[in-house]
Amino acid sequence: xxxQPLDDTTLRELVADATAAPSMHNAQPWRFRYRQATRTLxxxxxxxxxxxxxxxxxxxxxxxxxxxxxxxxxxxxxxGLDAVTTLLPVPVxxxxxxxxxxxxxxxxxxxxxxxxxxxxxxxxRKRHTSRAPFADRIIPDDVRARLVDAAxxxxxxxxxxxxxxxxxxxxxxRDAEESGLSDPAREAEQRYWTRDTEAEAPVDGIPDYxxxxxxxxxxxxxxxxxxxxxxxxxxxxxxxSRPQLALLRTVRDRPADWxxxxxxxxxxxxxxxxxxxxxxxxTQPLEWPELRRLLRDPALGTGHPQMIVRLGYGPGxxxxxxxxxAEVLETEP
Length: 333
Prior knowledge:
The strands form four sheets. Strands 3-4-2-1-13 form a five-stranded mixed sheet. Strands 5-10-12-11 form a four-stranded antiparallel sheet. The mean pLDDT is 95. Helix content is 34%, strand content 19%. It is α/β, with parallel strands linked by helices. The chain is built from ten helices and 13 strands.
């Protein structure tokens, strides 16, 4: 017998969970198409949301799509569905990032298809990027090990930077941030994705309330979304003296690897939430080829760097807007 299609409520909930994922500048470069006859969701990359200045290869765009894919798998498992996933199933159409066939779980009725994934479901809505200062409190070794394992399950390497290399990477981040501010095209592209919430009710991009405080310490690694603009009333704050940064890497550097990196990233972030951590990103050096090459220093580990993640203990970040499900989901018989 053909599989029964999912009910509309379940389908919307699955896609809403998927779209809670992070993406570069919160561009949300994804669209979903559900085929009822096969119970298959197709994740399509929306290349009209790419950033040709900062992400000309669409590497970061694919990482964002991978993060959405991981959330979809978590949501499916939470609902007792097997998410049979295929990456880049249509070579002639690179916009088709993945297909996910939502099969009924063959295990014990009422139990999640993948208990480890399902356990991460509550963290989807709790995870938000925090650009606030974190406490100078070291993440315990056992928690770090769980984050490393979370990435490994998804085919990526995740390693915290040792103290002897932290300063060198910090310099790369600051150099990249300053280069971006002095590049008119890049700054214009970044400004395009920021939102003045007094002038509009945004559904994407980075709203001004999520910029975080300005850096009064000279040690912040967050991207400053205000750029060269002054934001009236914006707070100044001292950031942690030694940010805890980790590199996420893959063995290869192709679109499929970028999608795997996105899944690994989101699994790490959800696992971090479970253990009381907050996170932000310091991806500026990855957007400059010469700086990204420096991050391949063998002393930092092997593989291609895909993300730099800042983790620690501190206040959670504000909820950023998402496009309505109706805007990113279409169904067909």
